[in-house]
Amino acid sequence: MNIAFSQVTFAYDVDPIIKNFSLKVTKGDVIGIRGASGSGKTTLFRLLLGFEVPDSGTITFDGERLTPQKLKAFRKNTTWLPQDLNLGDGKVKEVFQYPFTFQANKSQKPDEKKILATFDALGLKKNIWDIDFSNLSTGQRQRVGIALCYLLNKSILILDEPTSALDENSKHQVENLLFDPQRIILSTSHDPWWIDRCTQIVDLNST
Ligand SMILES: Nc1ncnc2c1ncn2[C@@H]1O[C@H](COP(=O)(O)OP(=O)(O)OP(=O)(O)O)[C@@H](O)[C@H]1O
């Protein structure tokens, strides 16, 4: 499994946000993208997921360009965890199940026991099960999102600042749950702890 950006340039308007950007990623890689606010970190993910199209250059998955059909296969293998996850209205026990109702995720549907064991590993208490997702703290929402990433069990993870609201113990749990030699992780992070654990660091300030 591999992903490659080759000489990718992209502008929303006139000035390119991404200029001649190249990156090769293979199974087992944990990519840490850092850069100032507005340097284009989220834009890179949007290009990869096909929400934007490069003005020039190519993005490939397993050596093939991301045509609409290839993109479908790519997204099926991918979970994107945004920095401020919003699972919608409802108690955690309701909204957490929602992604598992999608066709691509049905086979991974966990039972309550497995979900609560994952929550426990991330230091989330059982009582959050009955709390409205929107009433959770930022750090709790982030850990619920990490639990979701773990249980969806996809081979590509796109993580936006995955440890920004976590204490050190929770960070170790994230590493235990998500790092996998069979998986690609693409992340943005300003957290030195996380960056230290990345196999490749991309600095958008210097491109
Ligand atoms: N849909 C859009 N239309 C026009 N400009 C956009 C759009 N989305 C983002 N931009 C601009 O593109 C630049 C890069 O934005 P992007 O969100 O990729 O940065 P970022 O590095 O992820 O920032 P942050 O760390 O603040 O999340 C910014 O100047 C932003 O204003």
UniProtKB/TrEMBL annotation:
The keyword Nucleotide-binding applies. Residues 3-207 form the ABC transporter domain. SMART domains: AAA (SM00382). InterPro entries: AAA+_ATPase, ABC_transporter-like_ATP-bd, P-loop_NTPase. Gene3D superfamilies: P-loop containing nucleotide triphosphate hydrolases (3.40.50.300). GO terms for molecular function: ATP binding; ATP hydrolysis activity. Keywords: ATP-binding, Nucleotide-binding. PROSITE patterns: ABC_TRANSPORTER_2. This is ATP-binding cassette domain-containing protein. The lineage of its organism: Bacteria, Pseudomonadati, Bacteroidota, Saprospiria, Saprospirales.
